[in-house]
Design brief:
This protein is α+β, with helices and mostly antiparallel strands. The protein has a single domain, classed as GMP Synthetase, Chain A, domain 3, CATH 3.30.300. Helices cover about 40% and strands about 20% of the residues. The chain has three helices and three strands. A three-stranded mixed beta sheet has the order 1-2-3, with helices on one face. The protein is elongated, with a radius of gyration of 15 Å.
Length: about 80
Amino acid sequence: MNQEDIIPYLGLGVTLVKLQGYHLTVKIAGQYTTPERGHLLLNLEKYLRLEVDPRVEVFLEPRGDLNTLRVKLRGVKT
């Protein structure tokens, strides 16, 4: 399985970040609540399993704590 197999099935606002075997990491544009993101990812995984391969797993790109990152970038000590 490669990126060309997956990309046509991703919806608007969903970007493929990384593909390792059958493990897809995606990024979602827009502001969604946690339940909305969960439903979107689950539906995407079900769709990809039907259309591409039943072994596909979809994960959301992990994001760090933005406040912690800002503090580190400014050099502020806490």
